[in-house]
Amino acid sequence: MLYNALKLLHLLSIIVWVGGMVFAHFFLRPAAQALEPAQRVPLLHGVLQRFLAAVGAAVVIVLTTGLAMIGMVSMGGGFAMPWDWTFMSGVGILMMALYAYLYLSLLSRLDSAVAAGDWTAGGAALARIRAIVGINLLLGTAIVVAVLLW
Ligand code: HEM
């Protein structure tokens, strides 16, 4: 029961994180391209500030529930980690490192650009954020495919 509750929390957090990236990448950004930079950059900044704060909470939940499930299964001893769990943990940590770079470095750059009304610098920060979100989306999809198909 506890194990299933942890897995539920794990998956709900993944839905927020990966689902949010799908929405931002495929729906929000293409539609926002129709706006002038002076409207587009502050709009995407406001969206990203809120979304990335929620992803921060999701990252903490994914990591703690993932480690807790591994701890529960390995408690009896003689535990050999299945390869898909190893893949998920390794690639999951990489996704979290990319998220930290995005939140701590790129979002601050976007904050400063918006505060200064510098839409060129804001557009450049958004382009880098988009690249990192695209990579994390591919990595997250690869994990879900690996864990569910094998
Ligand atoms: C360091 C990070 C992570 C750790 C330690 C971890 C660990 C785990 C563990 C132990 C399970 C239970 C598997 C089972 O009961 O069969 C699980 C389930 C799952 N995780 Fe992760 N995980 C991590 C990150 C991620 C990420 C980033 C994703 C997707 C983007 C993800 C997607 C899933 C899915 C889809 C399941 C359900 C698998 C199933 O029930 O067959 N996990 N995770």
Count of separate DSSP helical elements = 4
Shape: elongated
The number of strands is 0
Count of discrete structural domains: 1
Q: On the 0-100 scale, what is the average pLDDT?
A: 97
What ligands does this structure carry? Answer: protoporphyrin IX containing FE
The N- and C-terminal alpha carbons lie at a distance of: 24 Å
Radius of gyration: 18 Å
Structural class: mainly alpha
Residue share in helix:
over 70%
What can be said about the biggest beta sheet? none
Spans of at least 5 consecutive residues with low confidence: none
Fraction in beta strands: under 5%
The helix/strand series, from N terminus to C terminus, equals: HHHH
Overview of the structural elements:
With 150 residues, this protein is mainly α. It has one domain (2-27, 39-149). It has helices at residues 2-32, 37-74, 83-116, 119-149. The radius of gyration is 18 Å and the shape is elongated. Bound molecules: protoporphyrin IX containing FE.
SSE map:
Layout: H1 2-32, H2 37-74, H3 83-116, H4 119-149
The protein binds protoporphyrin IX containing FE.
Protoporphyrin IX containing FE is lined by residues 7, 10-11, 14, 18, 62-63, 66-67, 69-70, 85, 88-89, 92-93, 95, 140, 143-144, 147-148.
